[in-house]
Fold this sequence. Notes:
Layout: H1 3-7, H2 24-29, H3 40-44, H4 47-62, E1 68-71, E2 74-77, H5 82-88, H6 97-109
Helix pairs in contact: 4-6
Amino acid sequence: MNIPILSKFFNSRADPKNSMWGSAHSFFFGPTSSGKHVDERTAMQTSAVYACVRILSETIASLPLHIYIRTEKGKEKALDHPLYSILHDAPNDEMTSFVFRETLMSHLLL
């Protein structure tokens, strides 16, 4: 087995290198201590992150969502508001309101 040939395929764990260091992303998120790149795709491959995002997204999406308008007597549901049907019924032909709000929350969390 030729060790120098394998070393170009496998990085050493003793001296990790963070390719994000010095980029705009490191300003917002900071470097990782392991030197590995972490983004929404790699985070969702971790079962704990996936479970937390799924639970929070499904819970928020299942809550009732109504649009209200202020009146002299207090507030009333704004059933004729343009956003009411998007948020309450369906934003498009391929998504329900639940799926839409779940997707929005997932994107927000990640």
